[in-house]
Amino acid sequence: MLVDSSDLSGGAEDDAALAEDREDPPEGSAGEGGADAGLDGAADARVCDAGFCDDFDEGPLGARWSEVDTSGGTASFGTPSLSPPNALRIVITDAAVSRAQVLLQKELGIATKLRCAFGVYVVARPTNAFVDLFRVRTSGSGIVDYHVGLGVSAGEGGTFREDVFYPEGGCGCPRATQNPATFPTQRWVRVAVDMDFIAANATLSYDGAVVLNAPFGGFQPTSTIVVGLGGVNLRGSTADVLFDDLACGTAP
Length: 252
Prior knowledge:
The protein has a single domain (62-251), classed as Sandwich (Jelly Rolls), CATH 2.60.120. It has helices spanning 13-19, 37-41; strands at residues 52-54, 67-69, 73-78, 87-92, 101-107, 113-124, 130-140, 143-153, 158-165, 171-178, 188-196, 201-206, 209-214, 226-233, 239-251. It is mainly beta and 252 residues long. Strands 1, 3, 4, 6, 11, 12, 13 and 15 form an 8-stranded antiparallel sheet that branches. The protein has a 7-stranded antiparallel sheet with strand order 2-5-14-7-8-9-10, with no helix packed on it.
């Protein structure tokens, strides 16, 4: 069972109680302390020793998250799951409105490094263009809003994109877009995203294999990092996706 062992935004009392029941990670596993303990703990989504975790087995749905937006569809417990009994099922039903979304968002605090690992099961690909499944948002000096989006496309592939919004109103949208390897459907895929904002590097992995390195970032974040899990319809599309065993960690 995964639990939220160290909520960076302060933590809820019920999470603290759950943490008492957490199984200790195997000897020698990541997350045994130090400045980057949260990053190491998020290296394997099956071991929760990171800053924020959710296996979607402890209700109510979304209780550990900072915000839940279901304006564009539904969020529910579903199956099959990566770790029984439940997974998170996101269904985008509003294809008529661009940027309709079903998104769980969590504030992780100000940091320069981020690692998130989670399972994704694409039940039905987007019906048009692509849908973001995972998002990172923050800001920094000279940048009023910074987004990174990991998506799945209507075709065989995926997208990994950064958008940058500047104080004078300009928008680098997208400043960079990468098209990683084929994103499988109808099976669980373990996804890992590593970001070093100051070093300007983002790494994307599927099932432990690196599929993309991108020069994303290149600035000092000055606001909390917000991660989003779910679906954001960017060009009018429906989608049906399952998520499970999310673990996110940060380092100063």
